[in-house]
Design brief:
Helix content is 40%, strand content 20%. By secondary structure, it is an alpha/beta fold. The strands form 3 sheets. It has a 5-stranded parallel beta sheet with strand order 2-1-3-4-5, with helices on both faces. A 4-stranded antiparallel beta sheet has the order 6-7-8-9, with helices on one face. Helix 2 packs parallel to helix 3. The longest helix is centred in the middle third of the chain and has 17 residues. The protein starts with a strand and ends in a 6-residue tail after the last strand. The model has no long low-confidence stretch (mean pLDDT 85). This is Response regulator transcription factor. Keywords: DNA-binding, Phosphoprotein, Transcription, Transcription regulation, Two-component regulatory system. One of its GO terms (molecular function) is transcription cis-regulatory region binding. It holds the Pfam family Trans_reg_C. It comes from Ideonella alba.
């Protein structure tokens, strides 16, 4: 794997870099928020190297110049889908929720076990490989295919009859497979800021999509994270 580490604590950064390199991964490290953001932007332009190895970001929450939350929020706002594992000494539920809501893919509180960090990175790497875009005009998650050019979707070769809003919601979820999407983010992206934030329209459309996509399928792809939002993901085997 290609791993970008943004961590200002020199001891933790050195521990991460030595350990990850010993596992055979390519590692680049930065200790300042703004410089780390620029490096992440560059890496995000091509989240997979020519050798097929995915690029992942290990991001500390507390950084000089720019916080990890700000970096995460900026990357996601710019459409950069680099998988992000956020690290923080702040391990409260509120802190984890904040990181996940802003687009982090996983969250690991400090102090952490290195083997657990490796396992989480490997999981993100598998997710990045297994659910990726087939072409610039086609999104693929398992046997679900979305043709952006024709604005058509199918599951296991079966065409799906979807409304314009259902297609927009499906495209948003398939564009970031495995990533938690809050109701607020879905509402802003699909319906715009004019929609009442207290409406339950997101939940209604999620139910409609489930009925059309997951009903009768061997593997459900749309998953609810209670109190946080929704994600599209291929369920783990076993």
């Amino acid at each position: 794997m290609n791993i970008l580490v943004i961590e200002d604590d020199p001891r933790i950064a050195d521990f991460l870099c030595r350990g990850l390199r010993a596992e055979g991964h390519r590692v680049s490290a930065f200790n300042q928020g703004p410089q780390g953001l620029e490096a992440a932007r560059q890496a995000g332009r091509d989240t997979q190297a020519p050798d097929g190895a995915p690029t992942l970001l290990v991001l500390d929450l507390m950084l000089p110049g720019m916080s990890g939350l700000e970096i995460c929020q900026t990357l996601r706002a710019e459409g950069i889908r680099l998988p992000i594992l956020m690290l923080s000494a702040l391990g409260s539920v509120e802190d984890r929720v904040a990181g996940l809501r802003l687009g982090a893919d996983d969250y690991l509180p400090k102090p952490f076990d290195f083997e657990e960090l490796l396992a989480r990175l490997e999981s993100l790497a598998r997710r990045s490989r297994d659910v990726q875009r087939a072409t610039a005009n086609q999104l693929v998650v398992d046997d679900l295919v979305f043709d952006r050019e024709r604005m058509q979707a199918s599951r296991a070769g079966r065409p799906l009859a979807l409304t314009a809003k259902e297609l927009a919601l499906l495209e948003l979820m398939m564009s970031a497979p495995g990533r938690l999407l809050s109701r607020e983010r879905i509402l802003a992206n699909v319906w715009g800021n004019s929609e009442d934030p207290l409406t339950n329209i997101v939940d209604v459309y999620i139910r409609r999509l489930r009925a059309k996509i997951d009903a009768g399928a061997a593997r459900p792809l749309i998953h609810t994270v209670r109190g946080l939002g929704y994600r599209m993901e291929v369920p783990s085997e076993g």
